[in-house]
Specification:
about 130 residues; alpha+beta; five-stranded antiparallel sheet; about 20% strand
């Protein structure tokens, strides 16, 4: 079981933003901006394009609902969707609230936030998601 599967199963703590039976969304612990969220399928699949067509459709619909919750919780111009990352062999989408394209520069310095702030951010997104 990879680290993202352990997070989705609750074996490793995370800052949950949204979930259903197939997908799980949680805050990136090295965020570019406040509200930077990862969306994963609960099923272990390394490459997003290895997902079945109907599954990837549901994945995008779930990510869309999470993105709308992020935009409500953190007003922004848009929520960027980025599929990037080789360090974890589990498909994941980055959803990043952005005021400009500079907010989606993965080479920039990451935010360092206290646990309480991470939790408050996750709670705000979760509340908008379940509305």
């Amino acid at each position: 079981m990879d680290i993202f599967s352990k997070i989705a199963a609750g074996e490793i703590p995370s800052y949950k933003c949204a979930e259903n039976e197939e997908f799980y969304a949680f805050l990136d612990i090295n965020p570019l901006v406040k509200g930077h969220t990862l969306v994963i399928p609960r099923r272990e699949v390394d490459y997003i394009f290895d997902m079945e067509d109907d599954e990837i459709g549901r994945y995008q619909q779930f990510a869309k609902k999470v993105a709308k919750a992020i935009k409500e919780a953190f007003p922004c111009v848009k929520v960027a969707e980025v599929v990037l990352g080789l360090e974890v062999p589990h498909a994941h989408i980055h959803l990043i609230p952005m005021q400009s394209e500079a907010d989606v520069d993965f080479k920039r310095e990451k935010l360092s936030l206290p646990k309480e702030e991470f939790q408050a951010i996750a709670d705000k997104i979760y509340a908008a998601f379940v509305k």
